[in-house]
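Memo to structure team: turn this sequence into structure tokens by end of day. - J.P.
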Amino acid sequence: MVVSEKRERPAYNPTVLRWARERRGLDLEQVATKLHQSIARIRAWEDASEVPTVNQARALADLYERSFVEFFLDEPPLLQEPQLVPDFRSHRGIDVPREIIALKDIQYWAEAQRVNALDLFEEVGEDVPQFPEILACGIGANPEEVSRLAREAMDFTIATQLAFRSADQQRFPVTLRRRIEGLGVLTLKNTGLRDVGARGMCIAEFPLPVIVFSNEAPTAQAFTLVHELAHLALHQSAIIAPLNAAATSAIEGWCDRFAAAFLMPRDALVATAGAIPATPASSISDNALNNLAATFHVSAHAMLIRLVHLGYVVAAYYWGTKKQQFEQQEANHKSFGRAEYYGTRYRNNLGDLYTGLVLEAWTNGRINNHNAAQYMGIKNLRHLNDIRDHFG
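Reply from structure team:
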């Protein structure tokens, strides 16, 4: 009788296993819960008294967001940690050390996509688009005027915005995103921002600055995109707070006023809502507020703040009656809808500027199938083909 030999498990480095867990800000209990294992077993893997199976080790790699092959290194890899961009949020509401790790990972991912995009521009032999110098300014500039210049640079009139039908509300931030990309801005979507109490991040590195936004409602996405564009005009990197009538800094206040002026220009709002009254009203009906917001394709929250700032409605109505309601609605927002095709998620996350560069380099033979999939973060080539077939 032939007795089969017991297969040896790979020689993982337990020190690297512990390093990867701690870098993600996870404790033993959290890992055990995620992997449906006992705390004792997770601890045993890290003190080398037990060895995880290949599947278990791959599950750890996925959870820690590390490469599986790193577990075989003699010592933890030396990573260049990004210097976290300035944080303009006033309320975090979660554990700070773990939050900082998560934010750094999002920033590291965004910076990596920027480097990839710059490499792709070189591969396809195209010049990197330059952010318009006419938009560069300081917080002493009039945000109403700078927002007007931004519309001109984007060739995006308020008439074009108002022409969107209510049924096409989902398309508005998509169109706005493409117009911003036309200014030489890489726009990325990362749903992890919402988990750390942020609505956006921007990296003001030129050329090709980066805007990162999350999975808010379409109207909120539009405001976030334009707010982050304002940060780029100021050449100020930032982690951006939830919308609030009282900004946490002079910079945030300027960027909020820029975004409001861009999306709800004073003249267009007066033409729709009527002349600004001599004395602000004590309130505004939900029906009137929602109709105005729908006309401009913004949230009722953003619209009320704009009406308060322009003098249509008293500030007390926002603070005493509507603020908490708006924040509850935004916290409860969930994204729904089926993807149009398999590759939708990858294209949405990376944007059309980045995706177009990958497809151009791939189609022209500058990169192969494997490289194109790596640039897009895709494992299944079918998704890559789907993106090419639907890109248009």
